[in-house]
Amino acid sequence: MARVLARATVDAVQAVGGYAGGVYLRSGTAGLLRMAALTGLPGPLFRPWWRMHVNRPYPVAEAYRSGQSVHLPDAETAMQRFPQLMAGLPFPFGSLYEPVTAGPERFGVLLVLREAASGVPVAAADRERMRAAAHHLARALAALDADGIPVFWDGDPVSAPAPATARGARQAVDRLAQAVLSVDREGRIGFVSAPARQLLGAEAAELRGRVLWEALPWLGHPAYEDHFRAVFLAPEPVHFPARRGGPASGDWLSVGLYPGPDGVTVTVGPAEQPAYAPESVVRPGAGLGSPADRASALYRPVALAIALTEAVTARQVSAVVTEELLPAFGGRQLAIYLLNERHLHLAWETGFPQGFLSRFDGVALDVRLPGVETLTSGRPMFFESMEHLAAAYPGISLDAHVGARAFLPLIASGRPVGSCILGFDTPRGFSPEERTVLTALAGLIAQALERAQRYDNEAALARGLQAALLPHRLPVLDHVVTVGRYLPGTAGMDVGGDWYDVLDAGGGRLALVIGDVQGHGVAAAATMGQLRSAVRAFVFSGHDPEEVVRGTNRLLIDLDPGQFASCCYVLLDPETGLARAVRAGHPQPLLRHPDGRTEVLDLSGGVVLGIDPEATYPVTELHLARGAVLALYTDGLVEAPGVDIDEGVERLRAVLAEASPAPLTETADRLVSEAGHAADRPDDIALLLAALTDGPRGEAGA
Question: Lower CB count within 10 Å: N or C terminus of the chain?
Answer without folding.
Answer: C
